[in-house]
């Protein structure tokens, strides 16, 4: 493993003071990301917004290639948007789904996606099919294939759920989607930035992601990947005259790239920050990032298990950098607040963020910690000692 931890930690001065252990919520930006954002804002303050955009156009346009390279896509297959939910919804709501069409999804589907399914079930009469889990709690791929019917019009799953270490078999689901010629929408929000992502290996048609989590970008950034061959077949649910120029009095013409899902006005400073974040991760190397973050998470699981009354809630035979757990007698939101006072940052996860999974496992509110490659074993120990003290109170 070739990670220069000293340099990485120096790039993020806040790490000297706080134990940031919540990359699954919002991780901590390194200096180059912060500078990219503030430099562009300063340029806007000096030149004016439009002039700053003009001045930085090449760099800002380059963000498409940077993001595309990171996930093995082409620049024209990327739309830059404000978060993962917007990215996902733009794809989902743009798909023509009619009464009786079936959507195949998973037990660990994220709340925002599932309520969108429910809305289209109510509005358009689609039917939601939920794939059962295998013996380890991941998507049962064999069952998934058996559930496909001639009415299955979409496969939409979450790769890594918001509530734990589970890594669903996203590429195997891509194989199924491709074999049955069914559009495949993958929520990769918690995956991008903590593990390699290749849209060709995943065989997905759409992929949604956010900037602020494992990518270490600024809040309010995200992107949507749309497979090139599909772009021109999809009329976005919402258009403006950037995505669809008004070419004659009674006509508009949709752009022929994924930016038909964008609109005219954007937070260019944040976009510059997203580009810097992706470059920063690429420089470190996504394999290095994964190896260190996942090893720290394994280590945290082992340390938490030593606290009497603790229970690790993560599913799956392969587990990522999100660690969900409970400790008997401790109320997660109260713990999060108490830890914050000690400059230790973790989060909690509510059952309604993954209601199907939560109800099937009878999950309470859980604690959720997510170490990233910039963390240290000492920080894990700080967290575990603090939890132990709260438990003994
Ligand atoms: C699995 C998953 N999908 C989607 C989202 C939504 O991301 P965003 O808040 O950027 O819209 C989250 C956020 O926690 C998530 O965990």
Q: Which structural category do the helix and sheet elements fall into?
A: alpha/beta
The number of helical segments is: 15
CATH class of the largest domain: Alpha Beta
Number of domains: 2
Q: Compute the CA-based radius of gyration.
A: 21 Å
CATH-scheme architecture of the largest domain: 3-Layer(aba) Sandwich
What would you note in describing this structure?
- This protein is of the alpha/beta class and 393 residues long.
- It has two domains: 5-21 and 285-392, Alpha-Beta Complex (Aspartate Aminotransferase, domain 1); 32-283, Aspartate Aminotransferase, domain 2.
- 42% of the residues lie in helices and 15% in strands.
- It has 15 helices and 15 strands.
- The protein has helices at 5-10, 31-47, 49-55, 57-70, 84-94, 111-124, 141-147, 170-180, 199-202, 228-231, 268-284, 286-305, 332-341, 355-361, 377-392, and strands at residues 19-20, 78-81, 102-106, 127-131, 152-158, 184-187, 206-210, 222-226, 246-248, 251-252, 310-312, 323-327, 344-345, 347-349, 366-369.
- The protein has a seven-stranded mixed sheet, with helices on both faces. Strands 11-12-15-14 form a four-stranded antiparallel sheet, covered by helices on one side. A two-stranded parallel sheet has the order 1-13.
- Helix 9 (199-202) links the parallel strand 6 (184-187) and strand 7 (206-210).
- Helix 2 runs antiparallel to helix 11 (268-284), helix 5 packs parallel to helix 6 (111-124) and helix 12 runs parallel beside helix 15 (377-392).
- The longest helix is centred in the last third of the chain and has 20 residues, at 286-305.
- Residues 83-85, 110, 112, 158, 161-162, 187, 189-190, 210, 222 line the site of pyridoxal-5'-phosphate (PLP).
